[in-house]
Amino acid sequence: MELDNLQEFKSTPQMREKLLEVGYIKPFLDGEIILNENAYIKAIPIVISGSVKVMRTDEDGREILLYYIKAGESCIMSFLGGMHQDTSKIKAVAEGNAEILFIPMDKIGGLLKDFPEWLDYIFKLYHKRFEELLEVVNAVAFKKMDERLLNFIQKKCELTDSKILNITHEQIANELGTARVVISRLLKQMEDENLVILGRNKVTLI
Asked: What is the spatial distance between Cα 51 and Cα 155, in angstroms, rounded to a whole number?
């Protein structure tokens, strides 16, 4: 398995080789849990192919989407939790079939020492995730649900590189932290406004 196609590692072939040497690759099917909340973090995941959605669950079991991890990226929250020997505060789920490169926590110190670009990679990810989390807070606090829904569909289409999303109203509601009936009503409104076309477990962005 090569990492040459991943933007983040193009300028660091030695680091790519080292990551493959110390890590291990595991495939995941669509919807399979990669990391659960409250689990101890034993390895840092780097997405090789596919993508991963990161969720947060409240005490009542309701979930909300925090951000997506695309190919070449890692989960900074897993990195920080693992470094401090803390449990996971998020749930990571495969979005479509995905391959993950896991770097054991006991190898991280050596990577940081031997490869300064690894630290730069972590800081860039931290900055990106922080901005994405601010977007989530801003959306929940200030945006109406119809704006959040349209933004969700657009981002999902961009992630999958397709205008057609095979997804249920219930799944959308879970990721946006709202009720299915709200999503169904807003999707019908969006269809009337010629923004989307609705099908059975399918949403097409116009």
From this structure: 13
**Model pTM score:** 0.74
Supply the CATH classification number for the domain 144-205.
1.10.10.10
Q: Convert the pLDDT of each residue in 128-180 to its tens digit.
A: 888 888 888 877 777 888 888 998 899 888 888 889 988 899 889 888 888 88
More confident call, 22 vs 159: 22
d(CA 72, CA 98): 12
Mean predicted confidence (pLDDT) in 81-109: 87
Q: 10 Å Cβ neighbour count for 127?
A: 11
Which of 152, 122, 134 lies closest to 44, judged by CA?
A: 122
> What are the domain boundaries of the chain?
7-140, 144-205
- Which CATH topology does 7-140 take? Jelly Rolls (2.60.120)
What is the DSSP code (8-state) at residue 74? B
CA distances from 136 to 59, 64, 68 (A): 19, 9, 12
CA–CA separation, 66 and 63 (whole Å): 9
Position 57 scores a pLDDT of 82
